[in-house]
Amino acid sequence: MKEDAKILITDLSVQRGYGIFDYFKTINDQPVFLEDHLDRFYFSAAEMFLPVDIEREALKNIFQQLIEKNNLPDSGIRITLTGGYSEDGYAPAKPNLFITQSAFSYNKDNFEKGTRLVTYQHQRQLSQVKTIDYLQAIRLQTFIKENNADDVLYYNASGISECPRANFFIVNERNEIITPEKNMLAGITRKKIMAFAGLNTKEESIQLEQLTTAKEAFITSTSKIILPVLKIDGQTIGNGKPGEITREIFKQMLGSQGN
Amino acid sequence: MKEDAKILITDLSVQRGYGIFDYFKTINDQPVFLEDHLDRFYFSAAEMFLPVDIEREALKNIFQQLIEKNNLPDSGIRITLTGGYSEDGYAPAKPNLFITQSAFSYNKDNFEKGTRLVTYQHQRQLSQVKTIDYLQAIRLQTFIKENNADDVLYYNASGISECPRANFFIVNERNEIITPEKNMLAGITRKKIMAFAGLNTKEESIQLEQLTTAKEAFITSTSKIILPVLKIDGQTIGNGKPGEITREIFKQMLGSQGN
């Protein structure tokens, strides 16, 4: 059981917050966008100088065994790689790898409910790497509640970057679908959207001022898929309902992942 | 034994790098600057919204028991407080607290050997809080070695801030002892030095250009006490040996902590 799995406190994740992870879904026992997630997992590990002593195909076999054993057709699988049991609590050691599977099924009602964001000035370090660093995100949960929001949207001097666990998009007056080009994690859902045919998508910086004139806004992630943003900093986006372009992308996305 | 202590992987330190800690020495079974470390520990916990369900005096009793039981007269005691066993891996739970004691005795030869730094542009998030976030510091260990250095010195657009585990000082041409005033952790050793009588100390921003003209430089921490900086980015500081003012402060510091 996931709830029983333990790690020594000498691990560098506990001592120094040092680790990376990735997370993908299974739908009807089928992993969704597995190759993309594995690409990112190995990239993150390499960026943090964490050697992975298991080959890609062997890793996929482990996922398959987990799927067969756990009998959770709709699930989320998280693979975590930490700095390992460090003798002095600082020097990296042989990494520890663990994989957990939890029941997860997407609730389509979420889309209609949408989400409310509150902006906050912060730039995640090593933002292109999926590290376990969510120090600000966890800390800001109080701030989010105080601001009647559901999640936080980070920005810095060069514009908006991302939510802690989701990428951000707006649809502007010219029906262009814009997402920040840098300072954020390259999400798999974001990547899939950018590759859809027939969409007028663009990677471009988004300034805070552009939020007030956006026709639509939405966030994307593996678990949220596409979530319409109905309010930012208390201001209503568009008519306060999920937008038509957002809905179109959502439908296309559901289709592409096998829902 | 410290080496056997375990934590569930659902802890937010493992899942999201969320936790704080503090670290103090004992010399001959006597804790050094304990009140200062406890002040900072409770401050860090409050800043991260981590409730500490143990009173200060009770905590001191636990340290005392540990000291009596472990029989390590010269030691380092680390107290860690993490985000706890989160049900969804994101929402903070009841914090986990653990305390470990390890043998540690200061080696006075370190002072003569000094240390070499390499500069790197980075600003630690929540730098005034002693969080477990050492993501950059651990990652940069390769970079440090490649640059024939022993540690990294962070700087940002507004100047130099700190080393990952030490505060930074220079002695300038006017024999002023200067340490950065912001963007860094307020170290206990730093605080003690600033309170010494008869020293011409100043909290002031230090720019990269000032390093080349510094007569002396040193770093301070609980375990390093005072360590002369002999090189920065390959450039020799002063005459490349521990400076006289640095040595004076070192002596005074050794005296004040009961060495």
Q: Can you offer a commentary on this structure?
A:
The structure is a homodimer of 259-residue chains. Chain A has 259 residues and is α+β, with helices and mostly antiparallel strands. The first copy, chain A, folds into 2 domains: 2-103, Aminotransferase class 4, branched-chain amino acid transferase, N-terminal domain (D-amino Acid Aminotransferase, Chain A, domain 1, 2-Layer Sandwich); 109-256, D-amino Acid Aminotransferase, subunit A, domain 2 (D-amino Acid Aminotransferase, Chain A, domain 2, Alpha-Beta Barrel). Chain A has helices spanning 12-16, 34-47, 56-70, 109-113, 135-139, 141-146, 188-195, 209-213, 244-256; strands at 6-8, 19-27, 30-31, 75-82, 96-103, 115-121, 151-156, 159-162, 167-171, 177-179, 201-203, 216-221, 225-232, 235-236. In chain A, strands 6, 7, 8, 9, 10, 11, 12, 13 and 14 form a 9-stranded mixed sheet that branches. In chain A, β12 and β13 (225-232) form a beta hairpin. Chain A is globular. The mean pLDDT of chain A is 96. Chains A and B meet through β1, α1, β4 and α5 of A and β1, α1, β4 and α5 of B. β1 (6-8) of chain A pairs antiparallel with β1 of chain B, so a sheet runs across the interface.
Brief descriptors of the model:
homodimer; 2 domains; D-amino Acid Aminotransferase, Chain A, domain 1; globular; D-amino Acid Aminotransferase, Chain A, domain 2; nine-stranded mixed sheet; alpha+beta; 259 residues; 14 strands; four-stranded antiparallel sheet
